Structure formats: structure tokens, C-alpha cells
Amino acid sequence: MNELLFVGLFFTLASLSLGAFRLGKSYQYALIAALAILMNIFVLKPFEIFGLTTYGGNVLYGCIFLTTDLLAEHYGKKAALRGVGVGFLALALYLIVSQFYLAIAPATALSGATEIQAALATIFTPAWGIVVASLSAFLLSNTLDVHVYDRIHRLTGKKLLWLRNNASTWLSQLVDTIVFSSIAAAFGIFAWEVVPEVILFAYIFKLAVAAFDTPFLYLSQLFKKNA
Asked: Do 63 and 17 meet the contact criterion of CB atoms below 8 Å apart?
């Protein structure tokens, strides 16, 4: 059941990315911001899929790469880098605003207010090691993805769309996984001994997501032609 739900989730998110592309750049920026915020909420949920343990934020993260690749393909490097900036600002806004709301004392006279505060604290109280690792990896890997995609695009022109999509994502996701895992280990989130295993499993999962999003980039060319 997890596998079916995951596939359904991926195709839903990828279709939303394609729909946002059809509507225009501003919709793609809005989608990146929404995905970035949701990613940091659902990253808390681990689950098993195809024999691997992963976290709920990974598929959302993969669709951010898809959306920035759509921007790079059709609007150029500058537009894609702006999308990365929007995502980073959304992450920062999510972190700052959530801490203000946690700090505000609840109206305990109202029924359920204390329980709601406790539930919100469980979700939104940050592990600062994860925060630093997530923000650093997000900014570095997404920026690298855009630059590599643009470089390959300049070399290949309109040809080899599958190559620039996958090569840029594979490289940037590897950097993302290494940076995130290393910083998290440095903060004591998990032991250094398990870092290679964490990197391997996370990277395999991200490679699969990158491969699945390639058809949506090809579909975007039809959308662009008919727009």
C-alpha cells in the first residue's frame, strides 16, 4: 500500500508542477514555496517503500528540483535561481513564524488549547542541527543543480533533455545528501558510523525520483508549444 500511495503522491505533485508551469512563472515560484514548507513538516515522518526507509520530505524535495528544472529549461538560469531563492526564503519564513507562534502562550481557559499547543510543539519545535543541515543543503544543492543544468543546456541546445535533467539532479542530490548527512552528524543527530548508510539509502531514493520526473519535462515542451 505504501508503494501505491507513494507513486500516487509523486504523480500528483509532478502534475501540479506541470500545471504551475502552464500557468506561468509566478505559479511555479508559489509552488516551490509551498513544497519547501510542506517538506519541512513531513520530513518528520519515516516510512518504508520498496524495502528502503525514507522520509516524507524527500518526494516533495524531488519535485522542487523538477520545478526549478522546468524554470531553467524554459525561462533560463536567472529565473531558476530566483526559484531557489524563493524556496530558501519560504524555509526561513516557516522557521521564524512557527517559533513566534510556539512562544505565544495559549488561551488555557479554552478546552483543548493546551493539547493543541503540545501537538504544535511536537511538530514545529526545531532540531537545530536539522535546520542548519536542511538550509545549507537546500541552498547549495539547488544552486548547483541550476548551474549544471544551464551548462549542459548550453552545450547540447535543445537536444538531450533527459541528460541535463538527470545529470544535474544526480550530481546536486549527491551533494545535498552528503552535506545534509555530514552536518546532521556533526550536530549529533546520528552517529558518524551510520553516515555512509544514510547517504546510500537516501541517494538511491532520490535517483529514482529524478528518473521519474524526466517524462514531465518532455510533456512541458508540448504544454509550451500549445500555450
From this structure: yes
